[in-house]
Amino acid sequence: MKAKTPKESLSILTEIVLPNDTNNLNNLMGGRLLHWMDIASAIAAHRHSKRIVVTASVNNVSFNQPISQGSIVTLEAKVSRAFTSSMEVFIDVWVEDNQEPGKRTKANEAIYTFVAVDQLGNPINVPPIAPETHEEKQRYEGALRRKQLSLILGGKMKPEDATELRALFFNEEAK
Amino acid sequence: MKAKTPKESLSILTEIVLPNDTNNLNNLMGGRLLHWMDIASAIAAHRHSKRIVVTASVNNVSFNQPISQGSIVTLEAKVSRAFTSSMEVFIDVWVEDNQEPGKRTKANEAIYTFVAVDQLGNPINVPPIAPETHEEKQRYEGALRRKQLSLILGGKMKPEDATELRALFFNEEAK
Amino acid sequence: MKAKTPKESLSILTEIVLPNDTNNLNNLMGGRLLHWMDIASAIAAHRHSKRIVVTASVNNVSFNQPISQGSIVTLEAKVSRAFTSSMEVFIDVWVEDNQEPGKRTKANEAIYTFVAVDQLGNPINVPPIAPETHEEKQRYEGALRRKQLSLILGGKMKPEDATELRALFFNEEAK
Amino acid sequence: MKAKTPKESLSILTEIVLPNDTNNLNNLMGGRLLHWMDIASAIAAHRHSKRIVVTASVNNVSFNQPISQGSIVTLEAKVSRAFTSSMEVFIDVWVEDNQEPGKRTKANEAIYTFVAVDQLGNPINVPPIAPETHEEKQRYEGALRRKQLSLILGGKMKPEDATELRALFFNEEAK
Amino acid sequence: MKAKTPKESLSILTEIVLPNDTNNLNNLMGGRLLHWMDIASAIAAHRHSKRIVVTASVNNVSFNQPISQGSIVTLEAKVSRAFTSSMEVFIDVWVEDNQEPGKRTKANEAIYTFVAVDQLGNPINVPPIAPETHEEKQRYEGALRRKQLSLILGGKMKPEDATELRALFFNEEAK
Amino acid sequence: MKAKTPKESLSILTEIVLPNDTNNLNNLMGGRLLHWMDIASAIAAHRHSKRIVVTASVNNVSFNQPISQGSIVTLEAKVSRAFTSSMEVFIDVWVEDNQEPGKRTKANEAIYTFVAVDQLGNPINVPPIAPETHEEKQRYEGALRRKQLSLILGGKMKPEDATELRALFFNEEAK
User: Fold this and answer.
1) Chain E residue numbers touching D54 (CB-CB < 8 A)
2) Does E155 touch chain C (CB under 8 A)?
3) Nearest of C38, C51, C168 to residue C91 by alpha carbon
4) In the Cβ-directed half-sphere of D32, how many Cα atoms lie within 13 Å?
5) Which listed residue, of A120, B146, F109, F169, carries a Cα 20 to 30 Å from E74's Cα?
6) What is the mean pLDDT of each run of 10 residues along chain C (175 residues)?
7) Do D20 and F20 count as a contact with CB atoms less than 8 A apart?
8) pLDDT tens-place string over residues B100-131
9) Nearest-angstrom CA–CA distance, A25 and A22
10) Distance, C-alpha D117 to centroid of its chain
């Protein structure tokens, strides 16, 4: 299959934080954001594969800053790497500044993995990714390490075989 | 503060998978489950701390088996360990067998972390956890390793300082 | 069919009262609670019968105390008695105390009746109930009286034939 | 306060049964209908009292016929009687015939009771009802009997004091 | 086909403005009202045609007055004219006065057009309309002019052929 | 105020058509799309003005092609012209081709108008628009004619004063 660029899979979601999306501090609930991120990244994975896609896993996600009710939240998702039938997707979450035009701050970053399947739910091959920008290349490189970590945590790979990941604990540059 | 048991924080959610919760294969969408898991674990963290709690992070989550429309899904969440103002919560997700009474299969397992805050959103101390069962003790032990992994991935700890985690790559028993 | 205990059908739902669930006093709307109680009791009836179940009737329900926005509400439903193809289900509704750990107050109690049906919607037999606790036995006993009342109110039984119910008006102990 | 007619409180809701409103037989779930009936009757009670109203109780409700997905459901609610600060409301539920113009069949009938309250939630007086049609007069008459039944079932009245209701068990005409 | 009156298609929807329906000024969002108007008018078109109906177009709609959270909104929709397989529907939107019984003010007026289709989505004929009241006759008369305007704006009619509409720019009475 | 480009206001929404968004032919309901278009255009108007914005009117909208369940729908909204305190916004609606990567077809085009208001709901000035592309310039030019049409239809302008609009009926080029 012919490689595609991450940009071809770019999916953008814009949401306004409504009352029912908020917790008792009137800030966006984590669960709602996780749900939106799943939709944004599923669309990106679909755009890359043109197949039905199902969520396979979610990487470590951190919620660093509260997002208040009424905020405009933009999610941008792009496939960062493809492995046989699975796709890793990066989601960047932005919150709009209420005053300064065009200004926005990054609220969050997350990584979801999807598998492309046929109508019976069996895995099916997807095109490889050809990263273009510096950031896309970095994310592409890191994908293998994250895949190993996920396999180890899931008990499907022995730590000593995770060569990419081991480097993390001996060599800062590999990061 | 006096320690509490994980059992005191147990929160149970039961959901029926409705049409709008499903993808094009008529199976539960990952994003909806992530949302339900956030609610279940937020309630567990609230029960432990009796404070407003906000989602701090989600650990690596895997989706191993499809859950079909109409299924009855039960989420059970319990605080596994508390650190100053943060609480790690384990969520076990069960799907009910449609035939055999009382039988159910585990569909999923996830770990969310919450921070207890006051009305202004500032972190506030929570009671420690005193695990009781074998599984609770295992989860309690693993929490420190997971915390270190999360700090490294977030760039807040140097890999060489993560003594608990490093063991993972040299010594299988530490797992 | 072999009898089952009420406990085998126990279904637990936990909900947080969100803004859209509330009336102009910021308290939970009755209609939303009736909806939640229907889901909780339908799951209990399904657990008992392992069949598709449809709501047949709702008994007199009282709303005694307001439940405020942000409250954690727990619904516990158990089949109290089975008649051929119908099942009476008791739902106890609890509201969590925001301060004291483990403490909760009863907000509500309701009784729904379900019928088990096959794929064409025809009634189908269900196992009998074998009550265990004192409360389960009381509820089991009262079910016949409630069934008679329901039949009379629906014009399907003559009052003079409702022997169980008549006792209510002559003999306090029968209550 | 000056009496009002039931007609002045008439509230009409029309709903289309959507996929998420249905059970596994593709029929309207009882809980959803209970929710819609609460909204319809709350609006009727509000129109009568021009006050904030809260659901006080729901009478015995029966679900006799399935309502299929895609159906158009019309709910008509009218205050049947007022007692100091409470109002009994009848809700008639109609399902539209898909072929014959103007034809519809009655799917359901339910009775909800509301209390009018001030901003602090304290009960407040409402105008009396002056029934006009034959059906309105019948429903007005029956309201007292239903109120007694509700009080007895709630343990707030002794059966021997329920003179209206006792008649039900000796004299068919009183029904 | 035998003509029907607008009244036979009358559809009434009543909604309470909930928190999630509102913008940052706590007033009903335009988009939610557009959605409700679509449902109300689709039901009216269905009542007239007894067919599946799909939205074909929305005329110019103005939002003149804010509708605050907690308001009771009533939508009344009636078919104003039928052309072969299409139906023009008028929707009047009323907001209830919170004090004075029976009083309400008109908040909005909109015109939607629907096409009746068979199971494959092909257009199918509908009965003509026989207007009765003065307002119904006015709306019936104006429908042709609006249809021409819509065809011109959609590039499907030459302005010089729109005889009804041209009159608008030369002769006030034609309006 | 300094002029801004339409591009600075660009807002993109991506939605998957879920079961509850569809009519009885399993196609997207018009009302849901109208709702999504309102959100997309409100965000564009907010990005242009950095103010609270309220929907003022919706222009003639046509629904030309059915959008099936499961489709990925992308809405792109940009301010086309600003008048004192009001902004006209164009929304282009695209449906993704399920096979060919990057291909999509235009399903719809709509025009909404918003007014920027302060915290009390009073109109407030917004920056002018400086169109850049050929399409943006065309839409900018047409805005005045549409404004006149809207004023006439709303009875706020005499047809003979609508110089821009009159041209439409005499001179094809003016279109």
Assistant:
1) none
2) no
3) C38
4) 17
5) F109
6) 94 93 91 97 95 91 90 96 96 87 87 94 96 97 86 75 67 41
7) yes
8) 767 899 999 999 999 999 989 999 999 999 99
9) 7
10) 19
Q: State the DSSP code for A101.
A: T
- Do the chains contact at A50 and F11, CB–CB below 8 Å? no
* F14 contact B CB<8A: no
Using the Cα atoms of residue A31, residue A32, residue A37 and residue A38 in order, give the sign of their dihedral: positive
A50, A72, A96 member nearest F101 (Cβ) = A50
Tell me if ipTM is over 0.85. yes
B84: phi then psi, degrees, rounded to nearest 5: 45, -95
The Cα E23–Cα E69 span in angstroms is 9
**How many Cβ atoms sit within 10 Å of the Cβ of residue A82?**
27
Does position F164 have pLDDT exceeding 90, yes or no? no
Q: Which of D108, D174, D113, D110 is nearest to D147 (CA)?
A: D113
Q: Residue D24 corresponds to which amino acid?
A: N
Considering only CA atoms, which of A113, A125, A54, F58 is closest in space to residue B32? A54
Which of B119, B123, A71, B32 has the alpha carbon at shortest distance from C70?
A: B119
Q: What residue in C sits closest to B127 (Cα-Cα)?
A: C101
* D117 with C25: Cβ contact below 8 A: yes
Tell me the per-residue pLDDT of C20-63, one tens digit each, with 9 for 90 and over: 999 888 999 999 999 999 999 999 999 999 999 999 999 888 89
Nearest of F46, F44, F22 to residue F33 by alpha carbon: F22
Query: What is the model's pLDDT at position C168?
Result: 62
Cβ within 8 Å, pair B39-A31: yes
Sheet with B61-62, edge to edge strand ranges: A11-16, A72-83, A86-96, A104-117, A52-58, B61-62
Q: Which residue of D has its CA nearest to C162?
A: D169
Predicted confidence at residue C170, as pLDDT, reads 54
DSSP category for residue D81? E
Which residue reads 């695990």 in tokens?
Answer: B131
- Is C130 an interface residue toward B (CB < 8 Å)? no
The residue-averaged pLDDT of B66-77 equals 94
> Residue A13: enclosing H or E segment and its boundaries?
strand A11-16
Domain regions of chain B by residue span: 6-130
Inform me whether the C-beta atom of residue F3 falls under 8 Å from chain E C-beta atoms.
no
Give chains near E: 3+ CB pairs under 8 A: A, C, D, F
SS3 for E52? strand
Could you tell me which residues come within 8 angstroms of residue C138 by beta carbon, excluding any fewer than 6 positions away?
Answer: none
**Residue bearing tokens 């079932």:** D153
pLDDT of E134: 97
CA B51, B54, B56, B62 dihedral sign is positive
Chain B hits for D24, CB-CB cut-off 8 Å, are 70
| pLDDT tens track for A29-88 | 999 999 999 999 999 999 999 999 999 999 888 898 899 999 999 999 999 999 999 999
- What is the CB neighbour count within 10 angstroms for residue C70? 15
In order of F7, F137, F146, the CA distances from F142 in angstroms are 18, 9, 6
CB neighbourhood size of B82 (10 A): 26
Would you call C19 an interface residue with chain E, using a CB distance cutoff of 8 Å?
yes
pTM of the model: 0.89
- Helices F30-49, E30-49: axis angle to 10 degrees equals 160
CA distance C95 to C16: 10
Q: Are A and D touching by the rule of 3+ CB pairs within 8 Å?
A: no
Q: Which one of F14, F39, F46 has the shortest CB-CB distance to A43?
A: F14
Cβ contact D35–C31 (<8 Å):
yes
Q: Which two tokens stand for residue F18?
A: 């879920």
Please give the Cα distance from D84 to F21 (Å, whole number). Answer: 44
Q: Token match 């929490």: residue? A: B143
Please report, as a single letter, which amino acid is at residue B130: A
Furthest-apart CA atoms within chain A: distance in Å:
52
